[in-house]
Write a structure and sequence with these properties.
This protein is an alpha+beta fold and 192 residues long. The chain has 3 helices and 15 strands.
């Protein structure tokens, strides 16, 4: 079922929910499912509505605050309605980061394409997957089960600050943040 809900009605709901200056409590909202809406977030972080990119950054930011994940599905939710959207990969892109501290006390704080800031740590782990060709796709948890794909330049910068660390039975190459080591690749697989 395709619903006729408009971005304007969702935007109004997001704006009202966000007036407190905090993220809306979407995890507490369980409205009835209203159907699918022709909205998609592409792998590069671009949001589309009816096949057209949404060019207003403020609108995208507001939509991102009412995004909720349930299993493999993504929804825009308000207290009274819930519509499913398509997400090609991760809903956000980690476009940059800053590092404070060194060694195990280091903290890596990412900034996303929608303005979120998140420090990698126990509640916001970094994970890395590889496709069938072995190409890496790194992610960081942003909030409420929603991840950001770490963009290529930021991943290269992470590799620059990476180090080897023994974890379990294996030596790994990865990074530290908030006292947690996030492994990227076994040291044995690194090429000179």
């Amino acid at each position: 079922m395709i619903v006729t809900m408009t971005p304007e009605s969702l935007l109004a709901a997001a704006t009202n929910a966000q007036k407190t200056g905090k993220l809306p409590p979407v995890e507490d909202w369980n409205p009835p499912f209203c159907g699918d809406i022709d909205m998609e977030i592409r792998r590069d972080g671009t949001w589309f509505y009816n096949g057209t990119p949404i060019g207003r950054a403020r609108m995208v930011r507001l939509f991102s605050t009412i995004l909720k994940r349930e299993g493999d599905d993504f929804f825009l939710v308000t207290p009274v309605e819930k519509v499913r959207i398509r997400v090609e990969d991760a809903p956000f892109i980690a476009q940059d980061f800053v590092v404070t501290g060194t060694g195990q006390a280091q903290m890596i704080t990412f900034t996303t394409n929608v303005g979120d800031e998140v420090t990698a740590g126990p509640d916001s782990p970094i994970r890395l997957t590889r496709n069938s060709a072995g190409e890496p796709s790194p992610y960081v948890m942003v909030r409420r089960g929603l991840e950001a794909l770490i963009d290529r330049k930021s991943f290269y910068r992470l590799v620059d600050i990476g180090e080897a660390h023994r974890s379990g039975e294996k030596d790994w190459f990865g990074v530290w943040s908030e006292g947690i080591f996030f492994p990227f690749i076994p040291v044995s697989e690194l090429t000179a």
